[in-house]
């Protein structure tokens, strides 16, 4: 993110993002992102069940959640609606990067964006597999 901010400060229009995308979705950063995304997404069904049960049983907890959900930062979304957003975003990354690659004229830059899109697809496939494994356990 910092590299994108620096690029934007140098020029109002960011024309090269391939290296930044690869740094985020490939290599050690990509592995880390895959690991935390898999962990979060594979446990979201369990988390939603626990949230629902705890809200039914504990009035104080339910009041706390309602107060938190009323804050502007939540944009009128409930916690049960916020939790799945990570998985929804993950599914959009490859599509977004594919669209960016199609609009990228310079060949080397396009290759970097396409590689980042492929890395995103691999991350998404891994996350989907982890979600299926966890669903079979529950």
From TrEMBL:
Gene Ontology cellular component list:
cytoplasm
User: Which InterPro entries does this one have?
Assistant: DBL_dom_sf (IPR035899), DH_dom (IPR000219)
Name the SMART domains for this protein: RhoGEF
In terms of PROSITE patterns, this protein maps to:
DH_2
Q: Which domain of life does this protein belong to?
A: Eukaryota
Residues covered by the DH domain: 1-130
For this entry, the protein name equals DH domain-containing protein
Species: Micrurus corallinus
